[in-house]
Amino acid sequence: MFHYLWLLLGLRSLAMGALHPPQPEVVTPLVAAALEILADQVSPSQSTLAVMDLTQDAEHRDHRQEQLMTIMLRTLGSEMALRTFQKPPAEVPAKYVVFLVNSAQAFNTLGFHFTDIHSTREFNFLILLTRRMSSRAERLQVLRDISRTCVRFHTSNVILLTEKKAGVVLVYAYRLFNMDCDLSVSLELIDVYENGLFRHGHQARSFNRGLSLSGCPLQVSWYPLAPYVSFIGNSSDAEERAQTWRLTGIDGELIKLLAEIFHFRILLEEPCDKCLSPDIKDDCSGCFDQVICSNSSILIGAMSGSHQHRSRFSFTSSYHQSSMVFVMHMSSQFGAVAQLAVPFSIIVWLALVVSSVLLVLVIWMRHRLVCGQTDLARHALQVLTTLIGNPLEASSLPRSGRVRIFYAGWLLLVLVLRVVYQGKLFDSFRLPYHKPLPTEISDLIRANYTLINQEYLDYYPRELTVLTRNGSKDRFDYIQGLGKEGKFTTTSLIAPMASYNMMHWSTSRLTHIKEHIFLYQMVIYLRRHSLLKFPFDRKIKQLLSAGIIGYMVREFDASQYRKPFEEDYEVSPIPLDSFCGLYYVSAIWLSAAVVAFILELLSQRISWLRRIFE
Description:
Shape: elongated
Number of helices: 18
Radius of gyration: 42 Å
Distance between the termini: 160 Å
Helix content: 25-40%
Low-confidence stretches: 1-9, 14-20, 564-571
Pfam family, one: LBD_receptor
Number of strands: 20
Structural class: alpha/beta
Membrane topology: Multi-pass membrane protein
Protein name: Putative ionotropic receptor ligand binding domain-containing protein
Organism: Drosophila erecta (Fruit fly)
Largest sheet: 10 strands, mixed
CATH architecture of the domain at 29-205: 3-Layer(aba) Sandwich
Strand content: 15-25%
CATH class of the domain at 29-205: Alpha Beta
CATH topology of the domain at 29-205: Rossmann fold
Main location: membrane
């Protein structure tokens, strides 16, 4: 009987438990603030979140910290996938990581290893300090120590939460520079969570709050290469380098714009060389050494994101691209006026001149024998008139039948020559003024062109390569100075070659072959794991989408808007520039006609001039 009585009491207890379920765990203000930050900034865009429970001694767990973590897991588990850790992993496990720590020593147990892959990923830390501090000084000291560890992990997107005894949650972030430009961690109170509400909007406590360097100076190294980086004035003068308006070009204007956005001052170093090739044995200390070994923080000047030195730096996202090409000198095969003589060969022109002279002599001799007097200049003018297709006066026509047959044969001959000349003249207008150039890299190699370059290239024979430390401008000057005397080439971006041609528009004959080597992505080099990388990346993408960088490119890089090279066999409309020789000759004839007309009018009043025309 008593056995059934205990069974009934057990069933009553279960029924009462179903009617009155256990009370849910109370969400502390610290966890509530963290959940609201995650709901605003992480849940809408991320599907995975890492949560780490860290203590100074892994064997002795913090009971309150475990309760807070349990509450977070139950709340967030339905919204995204969670990866939990109670021991520090070797690498940062996700883009967004939540840390629950009870001391700075617990956070210092982390020892993340950053590889090349991790250097291109931006991490965001939300750190909850679970232990309440007895004083403000102690709380700030712990948060400062944690922030220093975050700097060691190359992470600036950090939000720190700490709870006061009154249940008020303080939201902190850190800055690297103070107002005195001392490189030290400075805490900044960005928001307060009280009575279930934040005081400010979610932008105030955003992970990407925007970087500000408080007007502090950053040393900038630069490789001079127009139109990317140029300097107006004497770049060796420190006083002139302090005037940043003298720095110009695509990279120069971009770094000045970034300095204005992120509030830092540019300390411009002296121009440097790339010193690319280790095969040249000298004491060259180039731009890369200034960033690696010296105090320089930024390197500009047409830097490549795919260069062999990229593993030693952090670099921004690409803001511009250009093609690397082989540059060479183009030799002219005829001038603008000489192009008018191309339709006929030398033999045809010689036969035409000889026949015209003979015709003048025959007419002169006939008139001398028949009439006893003759005018050689008049006869030459008649032959020239018929040669270019103009008719003669009726009084000038011969009266003899045999002579008229001879004259008709001459008119038929010059008619055929004019038709043939006009037909072939249109073909000559489509011919370039310059000799055909190699169109592929293999053509350069077969023609034994010597490459003058700063380093050996995998796609060009070493025995045809001459190494030099000279920059693009010096190599252009050398190839331009040699002209037709040698077969030399060099590599360059299209934009520097176009800029050189514009600066030396009257003398430069440099061009590039049709086959491009590769597409060159422009970036800004920074120090390895620099905290400037990701703020620069975001701002560069904004400037690209807004068209501001495109405006800079349009202002400085004229090669982007030139007509591309056309195939030699491709038939294209004849440009007006091809008629420049014809215009020149026509202008001479018209000028002579105008002068003759004016002189003829003046001869009506001037007696000696009238005698000349008579």
